[in-house]
Structure prediction request, 544 residues.
Amino acid sequence: MNNFASLISISIGAVFINNFILSKFLGLCPFFGVSKKLSSATGMGLAVIFVMAIASSFTWIINKFVLIQFDVTYLQTIVFILVIAALVQLVEMALQKYSPSLYEALGIYLPLITTNCAVLGVALINTGVNTFSGKPYSFFESLLNGVMSGVGFMLALLLMAGLREKLELSDIPKTLEGLPISFITAGLMALAFLGFAGLNFFPPIGG
Amino acid sequence: MDILIPIFIVGSVGAFFGIGLGIASKKLFVHIDPRIPKILEILPNANCGACGYPGCSGFAKAVAEGKASPNSCIPGGAKCAHTIADLLGVTTSTEEPQMAVVHCKGGKKEAVERAIYNGIQDCNAATIIGNGSKVCQNGCLGLGTCLRACPFNAIRINGNGVAEVDFEKCTGCGKCVRSCPRNIISMIPRVHKIFLACSNRERGAKVKKYCSVGCTACTLCVKATPSGAINMENNLPVLDYTKDENFITAAHKCPSDCFTDLVKIRSKANIDTKCDGCGLCVTVCPVTGVIAGEKGLRHVIDKERCIGCGICLNICPPHAISLWGTGSIPKQARMLD
Prediction:
């Protein structure tokens, strides 16, 4: 198995082809809520990358050594939410103690994404059957998928924030001001991202 | 028995993380000012950002550290500011909620133009070129610089070409005050709905030539306000809103109709059966002929013409007069005991 190729496939797949917001339509709430300003979108994006990385690695461990061992994988949703929420809480406390400046930057966003569907989504995708190898991801692949999904989330968020900052200054019909024009913009962006579906330069491995 | 396995697993995972978090919260305990969560509880928690801090928690922290004044929370208002000040043991000047008003109402109909302005549709630009197109050097230019400065869409240019503040939408942020190149927008306490809608500092006949609603500095409003709440400064009456005065009489007496009353229908005075017909109210009423009645008999008020100033209320010996209607008169002016 071409390991390197599969890693690149996972990365590009997570960032562009299966972008969480624009292709999977997960995590739309923070996408519209925190995309008004570029600065807060950056903070939110970094927080999402961080939480997704932690969530993918820990849920992978829990899944492999607890859920599969006892043959109770149907408990994934509830156990993963529990694990992610507890971890984020823990990380928040640790940040507050050891890195107040980072806590100031990410602090407000961390609780927001604790129970976000995108974060749960990445954990469930990691442990499910994936398109590249027909098997669940390995630990490292899960971690990579988590980070790259976060990067994809941040990319969409930053693009949207940049557009919305421009939209603030443009002449928009009164009825479309604010959220409506953002919805239309997001729809057009999603259409554009559909183009990445053809980006399939690494053939699926083993399948 | 199968049900016990998931119960055990979810239970133990929950217990593991629960205990972990419990230990972590002890180990990673960070001392935070105990007053911050208390302040946060008092605040409206709307996270509107009107105070200039990132959300209510940011504001609570700044207040606890003494960097912000408790009265900076606009939605919380005076009540919230007082509670926080009590908690912190500091005194706060609770500012009354304010609103912006435009001190000009001389539009296309009233004010004379001396030129036709075809330049950039902005008051700053018009001011630079020959100080605007109006003869009056203090009148509203009506090109909407304040309208664009308002973040709440509370200002519009009315059909007469003068900026107008919708006091229900105005939050009192003061952005329009700073944007106006002619400095004719100012903040007044929200409870007062009467203000002088003129900023012209010239005298008498001169003003009349170019604006029919311009203040001629006749000082009739000063005379109509025995409380001393109006003083003349630079040929303009200055309304002192801190005094116990509702300015209804002054607005009524103005011969040029320079005042604007945002209340469309004022409450009217009514004399009830306690009236002993002493006639005192007739002598104090600023509008002649509104109160009528023979001495010794119950007097009657002409509801059409009563301006609702409330002067007769306190003067009446048997307390027979009360205001009926919309209840839109400032509390201190109502003086019902």
About this structure: Residues 55 and 84 of chain A are 6 Å apart (CA to CA). Residues 139-169 of chain A form the longest helix (31 residues).
